[in-house]
Amino acid sequence: MNQLLDDLFRRTSGQIVATLTRILGARNLALAEEVAQDALIKALQLWPTEGVPANPSAWLIQVAKHRALDLLRREQWLADRAPMLAALDAVSHPPHADVHLRGEPSLPDDDQLAMMFLACHPILTREARVALTLKTVCGFGVAEIARALLSRDDAIAQRLVRAKRQLRDADVRFELGPDEYHARVDSVLDAVYLLFNEGYGAHAGDDLIRAELCDEAIRLASVLVEHSMTATPAVHALLALMLLQAARLPARLGASSDLLTLAEQDRSQWDRRMIARGLVHLNRSADGDTLTPYHVEAGIAVEHATAVSYAATDWRRIVELYDVLLDINPTPVVALNRAIAISRWRGAKAGLDAVNAIVRTGALRDYYLLPATLGELSRACGDEAAAGAHYRAALACRCSEPERRFIERRLAEVVP
Amino acid sequence: MPEFTLMLRDTGEMFAKLGPAEIQSTIARYRAWFDRLATTGKLKGSHKLRDRAGRVVRRSGSQVMVTDGPFAEGKEVLGGLFIIDAPSYEAAVATVNDCPHLDFGSIEVREIEIMRT
Q: Can you tell me the distance from the alpha carbon of A372 to that of A261, in angstroms, rounded to the nearest whole number?
């Protein structure tokens, strides 16, 4: 049997949606999605008994094209059908079907790029951008998006419908001028980073699909760096950051799916190829004079990824980078990470003072990592009673299953 | 050896909800099932029926009525036909036990009756 590439249908679906949206106009995005879905279902009905065609994605694109032509000839309500028909007729062979594999950057594809910008349009909320990107660009189904984002099917379906309605009401254009791509790339980066963090927060106990979000985010950023219009220093910085972080994922879980701290991880399991790719992009992010939070976070990730051992980590340099980050992105989460770095550099007591400064602001009250950090640092200062109380407070917060087990393990160690 | 028809019915609604990756993996499951039937020599023939087309012909009084169909919303419609060799109903049913179609619709298994002289 003809073996299909793992993500062939996702990629081809994204290609069909993007190409048809260009031809039919952004207001007909839902129609483009429907046509793409019809083509995939047609394959489902025919391929099992008739066999898989020699060029599967070309077949799917042809079926979608004919279905769209049928629709256009029938639907009188579509204005300007003549140019649409001509453009559809011109769709022949897919520009680069079957050539890209999972995790590899795909060839430049203007439709795909324009689709990313449409899905990440600034009029949409960040959550809507993430969902719509997964649906239209990444080829995820509604149920898959819901699972990946820990939401319900109907909530995601609603979010998608609302986003498409907003795009239609605003009558946005699909293709943008070079300047517009440049000006709007931040709204795309923001969604890509949110997507990455959703995946990065996932653990082995979670649905596997959540971990795929990291791959998708890296793929999307790779598309952005392939195009001269969108390959800004910030894009290179974000791609570097994600590669450097994702490189460490394989070492994050121990034998029984328990979370391992940075100190406990087996560094030989880190993905050296990814780290090397990350360093290349970090280098290219230094062009120009912009310093984004992505640059600084990538700088921090480099310190971890290139330290030969936990003991060899340059914590002083990391604290300095957090100081810079706090300056351009003053959020309590950054402050908390900075406090942890301080404790590694200047000891638990100094770290505890820094965390308590955050506690006094009242921020992060429901974030498990705040009491969990207080527990770790209290324990390092020799105050096991306080540590126990903090671990208990952390367990009262929402966290993932491996995180909960990690804290329970710590609690058991201080409470005999 | 007796022959059986397998009639695969579905509403189409379940398929519509699948995402691209799920459609791809479903195709792989159908193909694995179909290949098993073919390689064990049980399969005599198969037909996929075209969607969104069809006529239902009925006599009404003195007239022959032709209606488009069957497209009834929410009702299972025949989508595919298979003919297999099997020694018994039990054996015929066993061949569809692991058919992925059961996730989406029903399969009617019927023996083909042959007139004996």
A: 13
Buried b (16+ CB within 10 A) or exposed e, A37-50: bbbbbbbbbbbbbe
* Cβ contacts of B21 on chain A, cutoff 8 Å: 7, 9-10, 139-141, 144
Domains contained in chain B, number: 1
Residues B103 and A238: their CA atoms lie apart, in Å, by 42
- Residue B46: pLDDT band by 50, 70, 90 thresholds? confident
Query: Residues of chain A whose pLDDT is less than 50?
Result: 1, 95-108
pLDDT value, residue A103? 39
| Predicted confidence (pLDDT) per residue in A241-275, tens digit | 999 999 998 888 777 777 788 888 999 999 999 99
pLDDT digit string, tens, across residues A51-107: 899 899 999 999 999 999 888 888 766 667 778 888 887 786 554 444 443 433 344
**Is B30 touching A (CB cutoff 8 A)?**
yes
Question: In this structure, are residues A216 and A138 in contact, taking their beta carbons and an 8 Å threshold?
Answer: yes
Can you give the CATH number for the domain in which B28 is found? 3.30.70.1060
Three-class DSSP category at A306 = helix
Short-list A209, A203, A212, CA closest to A256: A203
Where do runs of H (alpha helix) occur along A288-347?
293-306, 315-328, 332-346
Q: Which of B15, B21, B33 sits opposite A41 (nearest CB)?
A: B15
> Is the distance from CB of A136 to CB of A22 less than 8 angstroms?
no
| CB-CB neighbors (< 8 A) of A52 in chain B | 27, 31
Could you tell me the two tokens for A186?
């931040």
Residue B117 in any domain: the answer is no
Query: Whole domain around residue B91: which residue ranges?
Result: 3-111
β-pairing, B43-48 vs B105-111, is unpaired
Boundaries of every domain in chain A = 1-97, 106-227, 232-313, 317-416
**DSSP-H helix ranges across A203-246:** 208-226, 233-246
Buried-exposed string A161-199: b where 16+ CB fall within 10 A, e elsewhere: eebbebbeeeebebebeeeebeebbebbbbbbbbbbebb
- Look at domain A317-416 and name its CATH class: mainly alpha
How many residues make up chain A in this entry? 416
| Pairwise CB contact (< 8 Å): B30 & A48 | yes
- Do the chains contact at A44 and B30, CB–CB below 8 Å? yes
A33 contact B CB<8A: no
- Tokens representing A382? 């020799």
